[in-house]
Amino acid sequence: MWCLLSGNVNSENSSHWCEGLYEAKGAHLILYCRALGLSHSEAEDVVQEAFIALLKVEKNLDCAEAYLYRAVRNKALNFKRSLWRRLAREIESKRWFERTEEETDAEQIAMRELAQLPPEQREVIVLKIWSEQTFEQIAGLLQLSPNTVAGRYRYGMAKLRASLKGKENEELELQRGTIAPVETAPAFA
Fold first, then answer.
1. What are phi and psi of 43, to 5 degrees?
2. Which CATH topology does 103-176 take?
3. Quick one: which of 68, 84, 150, 189 is 20 to 30 A from 77 by CA?
4. SS3 of 2, please?
């Protein structure tokens, strides 16, 4: 069996068929869990549990990726239902993405604005952009129509554009300095 954190535990079947799937989709699944509201460590746990369940399958599944996204989503939603974990998650939500030194100010602003979107829109945007799934794949995962998924994506992206455009205008005003106040016209009697 392949242990996701410490390497090979049982060497008799070390080249398990889902190892490549983990390498290709592991980071995407963690980000997806983050979009569902889990902390980074919670997301890693959920993804590991999903892969452990997948490892119990003896043969290569035709739709392993879809199975994996569904399993991760279900495990993430179950994980969120716990009261204590929910309280910890609310505290953690202030740091939705872990920050790195390489992040630009624009990236930090974009991540902060993404975190402000409704969860339904944020979930679709993360699946579409970072996991590179089609609307039909996302619809199958969320058990919605492709039109509903496309609408959530469209509205979420419009909100992101508007909020980021507003931030850009604020920064331009700050760079230009204060704008001279305009006097009001005298009132008509």
1. -60, -45
2. Arc Repressor Mutant, subunit A (1.10.10)
3. 150
4. strand
CB 93 within 8 A of CB 37: yes
pLDDT tens, residue by residue, 119-152:
999 999 989 988 889 999 999 999 999 999 999 9
Distance (Å, rounded) from C-alpha 47 to C-alpha 25?
Answer: 10
The 8-class DSSP code of residue 144 comes to S
Domain boundaries, the chain: 1-95, 103-176
Query: What is the C-alpha separation between 93 and 97, in angstroms, rounded?
Result: 9
pTM (two decimals): 0.54
Which ranges of 38-145 does DSSP label H, i.e. alpha helix? 40-55, 64-80, 83-92, 105-116, 119-129, 135-142
Residue-level length of the chain: 189
Angle, alpha carbons 135-141-143 (nearest 5°):
90
> Would you state the pLDDT for residue 47?
94
